[in-house]
Structure formats: C-alpha cells, structure tokens
Amino acid sequence: MNDQHDHGALGDAEYAEFMELAAEEGFDLEDVEGAIEEAGHGPLPVLAVVGRPNVGKSTLVNRIIGRREAVVEDKPGVTRDRVTYEAEWAGRRFKVVDTGGWEQDVLGIDAAVAAQAEYAIETADAVVFVVDAKVGATDSDEAVVKLLRRAGKPVVLCANKVDGLSGESDAASLWSLGLGLPHPVSSLHGRGTGDMLDAVLDALPEAPAQTFGNAPLGGPRRIALIGRPNVGKSSLLNKVAKEDRVVVNELAGTTRDPVDELIQLGGVTWKFVDTAGIRKKVHLQQGADYYASLRTAAAVEKAEVAVILIDSTETISVQDQRIITMAVEAGRAIVIAYNKWDELDEERRYYLEREIETEMQQVSWAPRVNVSALTGRHMEKLVPAIETALAGWETRVPTGRLNAFLGEVVAAHPHPIRGGKQPRILFGTQAGSKPPRFVLFASGFLEHGYRRFIERRLREEFGFEGTPIHISVRVREKRGAQYKKKK
C-alpha cells in the first residue's frame, strides 16, 4: 500500500503513525491494514445474478459465497426479496445480489423477468446471466438479453445444469444469444464455477475509493425524494422547480418511474429525482407498483441525499419507518420533510411531536423541515437542510483528534465488566466518508449498547448531522494466538 488512495481517508504520514500505534498495542499489522482498507474503500463492486425462475440462480449464489444461505427449492419463485451477500474469490471481495422471486402472474413472466433484471442491471457493476443449458434459450431469456445490451454492463453468461461432458454441446448452443462465451457450470456440483468466477473478476471493477453508490462523482448533487404514495413528492418537486414539471393527482401512485429534474436553488444546480411511492414490502406488491418500487430503490442507490417525505396529517406508520431504514442502509445523507404542515391543528401537532420522539429515534440526527408543498411554506429551509446533511455525510475527523476524543470517552465511561473482563477501545480511525466509516481497535468484544453510546458521543462531539455512521470493531488477538499464527 504505497499510495494514499489505499489508506482509506488517511494520508501517508497519518497512516504510518497509526500503524506504529497498532504495533505498540500488539495488533497484527496485516489485520489492521485489512480493516482500514475494508472500511475505507467505497462500496464493494456489485455482481447481479439474473435469469428466469428455476434456472439455479440461488444455488449458484450459494456456490459463489461458499455457504448455503440463499433459499433453494425445486420450484420457481422461491426467492422473493432481492438479497445481497458478500463473497470473495482469488483474494478479491465483492457483493452478490440474488434476484428473483417475482410473482409469475403479475403481468406475465416476461414482464416480471424484465423488471427484476432491470433493477439488478441498473445497480450492478457486472452481471452473471444464468440460463438453463438443458432447456436452452427461451423468449424470456431473449428479453433479458435485450436489456443487457441496452445497459452496456459487462455480462458473464453462465450455462447452468451442465453436469458432464454430454451437456457441453447444450452450453455451446447458447453462443446464439450473442453474449460471448457460455461458461458451462453445474452450480449444484461446483463444476466449472472457478473458471466462471475468474471471468467475473475480469468483468468487475476494483472496489472504488470514496464514491457513493454507483453514481459518478462530479456534476449536480443528486437528491432522491422518497416516501409513501400521495405524501406530496411530485408537488414538492413542482414547488421547488417553480413550475409543473411532473403530474400531480390526488390518486396515489401517479408517479411510476423516477423523474430526474435539474433545478436551480440558492444559486446551485441540483438534480432532484421524484420517485414512485413505496406502498409495502416489494414481494407483496403486484403489477406496476411492484416495478415502481424496484426503480425507486435503484434511484436511492444512485442518490447522495434522500429527502424522506412524511404526511404530517397521518400517524407515522411502519411503512414510513421501513422507507427510512432503506435510505439509512443505503448509506445516504438524510433529510426528513414533514409535509402538509399547513393542514395541522394544535391537537395533531401535539400528537405528531410525541410520535416523532418515539417513532423516529433511529434518525433523530437527521435535519427536519416542516413544509407545505402546496403553499410553499418553509420551502426555503429545504436547501440549507440538504447542505447540512451533505456536510455531515462528507465530514472527516483526523486520527489524532479522534483518538484524543476516544481516550477521554473511555476514561469517563468505561465499558461494563462482563465475565470478569473489561474490554477497552485502544485506538481508532475514520477510514472513510460518504457515509462516515470508523474502525475501532479494542482489547475485547464491544457490546452493541456501548457501540451505540460511542456513536452518540461521536455525533455530540463532531456533528455528523444528517448522515448514518458505520462503526466496525477489530478485537486484538491474544498474544499466544498471535505467536502461533506467526510460527
């Protein structure tokens, strides 16, 4: 690791000083180096596994990740939600997205396949397209091929269910798809998966340095407007644009596709994305709602800030909280906009404040604006809130200052004693930003309650308003174990 890029957010001098400290505390330096690199790079590259139902996608995913986690059953549609796993091959780490689980009777199987593939392709860096070599290419496979060509993403063609030499000719027939070499694989028995994964590594980019999602750096900042149907996302976009850019209707669900709009606000150009309302869990949806939710999730992945709209005239719902969780897990800066504020009476305001105290604890750090998209009330507060959230999202704490702070916190509030031992935070570093990512090195396991306490104190000391914080902990091995490892 010679250049600064590989040190996460640490400069060369800071990195050298940090590694010296790690050596003094008896940490394995390779482990420390790996922890910083892991936390400091941007998101791991994403590999989407797509294909028709029952071609063996989940079995292949289990083979790639090396354990049986994806649910497998010999009937189509077992995978319902898209699930992401971490995998490693030849020393390189990446994420694998198992797609599938569409309802076959939603709008016909071709439409369902296309919707899943569209989402997966849009958010992935490379795609493994799984085809059943015994069945051969079907019309549904051809529909996905068209999407893949349009997207221009690297594709590795997996001819699955080739259990022996007799199946090689079946695999060869898939050259007709025009996606290059079909890799004959038996995901059930592992045959050919190594060669296929070598091709996957050639297709995947290296893990990027500080970036967000899959969106390119530079250009206007991307703001996704998200929330339940009919909370006023399109009205808000029209109000900030000062013209009717998107259709607004009292009927919930007017917006189906994310709508990108370049808007000048406060002397700055922003890219606002109006998204479809998310009604409920994706796998419980039907028809156009199902596809709209997929596209909304993709829009959040590519945004920098999620402005989450909540209808202040209605009780804060489980679905509101689910949408917030989606944005937090995506690592986006967050602003909470309570819309329709002009319609509240005193009683509703009282109960809303109580709901916010109890139901919105998970994002108590997010800037809040009380707005009316209809009348324009307090719309001027939206951009300052977005700028605050972005500033928190990009904040970087120097390692020296962070360790002085950690020393004070640990001295004043040590970890509780468990089993006769008292684990201590020895030192730490901020390995990345967008969102802020910290690695703490400790003498023993830190309980979740103590980690939450550390996060709370980090926010009190350094701000981080409007951004999730990721904290990972590395525990020092016992000296004896370390000695055996070196031998």
From TrEMBL:
UniProt feature coiled coil, ranges: none
Residues that, per the record, bind GTP 1: 51-58, 98-102, 160-163
Domain EngA-type G: 45-208, 221-394
InterPro entries found in the cross-reference section: AAA+_ATPase, G_ENGA, GTP-bd, GTPase_Der, KH_dom-like, KH_dom-like_a/b, P-loop_NTPase, Small_GTP-bd
Keywords recorded for this protein, A-Z: GTP-binding, Nucleotide-binding, Repeat, Ribosome biogenesis
Gene3D superfamilies, per database record: 3.30.300.20, P-loop containing nucleotide triphosphate hydrolases
Annotated GTP 2 binding sites: 227-234, 274-278, 339-342
Subunit details: Associates with the 50S ribosomal subunit.
Function: GTPase that plays an essential role in the late steps of ribosome biogenesis.
Protein family according to the UniProt entry: Belongs to the TRAFAC class TrmE-Era-EngA-EngB-Septin-like GTPase superfamily. EngA (Der) GTPase family.
Protein name: GTPase Der
UniProt gene name: der
